[in-house]
Amino acid sequence: MSLAQHDEDSGTATHPETRGIELVSDSERHGRARDLFFIWAAPNFSILNFTMGATLILLGLELWQALLVIAAACCLWVLPGIIAVSGPAAGTSGSVVTRAMYGLRGNKVFVAFVGWFIGAVFLSLTWLASSFMGADLLGRLGLDDPVWVPIGVTVVVAAITIVIAIFGHGLILRVYPLVAVALAVIFVLVAAFILPTVDWQYTAPAPLTGIALWSSISIGFTILASNPLSYINSPDIARYLPRSTKPSHIAAATALGGALPSFVFTSVGALLATGVGVDGFAAGIDAVIFEMLPSWLGPVLVVGVVLNTIALNSMTAYTSSMSLQAIGLPLKRIPATVIVGAVGMALTIYLVTASTFLDAVNLMMQFLVVVSGPAMAIYVVDALRRRFAYDGLALFDDRRGRAYWYSGGWSIPGMTALLSGGLVSILCLSTDLWVGPIAQATGFIDLSVPAGTIVAAVLYTALSRTSLAKDSTR
């Protein structure tokens, strides 16, 4: 292979990456585990964290209760860290590795519905953030059309995002550390102006007790937990690391990169809400923050939101393009990336015209756990059960009777655990649009995350020990 072809396959900061789900050979492996810290930190210096933190106070929690919920949810970042190890082990994307869990045919269904759903939600949510913030800033400059200005911001940010996703891993590896540092500075500055408004003696207007308290805690935990549980794409980012990289280092760098900024700035969002109060958010969290900042910092924050949006969505579009390939569509990675971007942009434009930012975030984050929680649990169980010993070549062997053919191309343990976990999550979910019968019976306590993940993990573990899970890799 020529050097030019190598650059095109693996991607550099100056060449688009053409490799999709194809195996990464040992000669093309590069980087260190600690590089993952900055790659995962950049997308999590986010205004979404402010929004979710403020939501905990709006749900009626005391400040100390909100901080404990944030800490508990951030602990879930260890799960994307664990499954990230499967990337270098298999030498391919997570959307291919999951063939070991669902079978060659079952995985196509899983990736089409679960992978695409998660990707579309996060593309739209983060583009939505930049749309509202950018529109607010432009409105202060005289461009105040409530529909076309947010749509215009969405289109511009989406275009930049897709370009970065096309260049792929090489550009992400080079640029994200710089983006992470820039975002850290911006959000620390914003936090510095928010903190003087904090009511450190804050007490909820109507302190919650008993079932009502646990209902608010559980709903808030579900919203926050949906963020780490959604990153089933973490193997895609780690797959270029040398095979000899220590699994513990991969897991730690991934988990800490996501957890640290998430904890800090979700906590700042909760602190922000203590000073503003429930009524203060009527105009939207973007307007609230702008009012607290000096005139020079408002535009800087918008730049930060846009940078964060581009960082998160470039990663999402990058990995979602490989999901399209894993489904079996005859697409190269770059055209697949363009399609992913178009779908996400269309959903964002719909949300811009149909909802407020805070409502859209909370509702979609809650529904996200129905699929992301069980899927993450199954992946973690499978990775630990196999000790990350995935055979990359076998994962691509789609002939009948081969390693991951299972029962007619379907893994009964994987599909049963996924559907059962998802069903239990739905029954336990408590949102404005849907309250499951179990949630109703418990007084609107949302147990969708623990119930869905535990059911999926236990079922998959048990069924994997039966003849239903027989494959030739063990």
Describe the structure in your own words:
It is a single chain. The protein is an all-alpha fold. It has one domain: Hydantoin permease (Orthogonal Bundle), CATH 1.10.4160.10. The chain is built from 22 helices and no strands. The protein has helices at 3-10, 35-41, 47-58, 63-74, 78-84, 86-90, 94-97, 99-102, 104-140, 148-167, 169-194, 210-229, 234-238, 247-276, 285-292, 297-327, 333-354, 357-386, 392-395, 412-428, 437-441, 448-463. The radius of gyration is 22 Å and the shape is globular. The two termini are 34 Å apart. Residues 1-7 have low confidence and may be disordered.
Q: Strand percentage, roughly?
A: under 5%
* Helix-strand category: mainly alpha
Mean pLDDT: 86
- Compute the number of helices: 22
**What is the N-to-C order of secondary-structure elements (H for helix, E for strand)?**
HHHHHHHHHHHHHHHHHHHHHH
CATH class, named: Mainly Alpha
* Low-pLDDT runs: 1-7
- Name given to the CATH homologous superfamily: Hydantoin permease
CATH topology: Hydantoin permease
* Largest sheet properties: none
Approximate helicity band: 55-70%
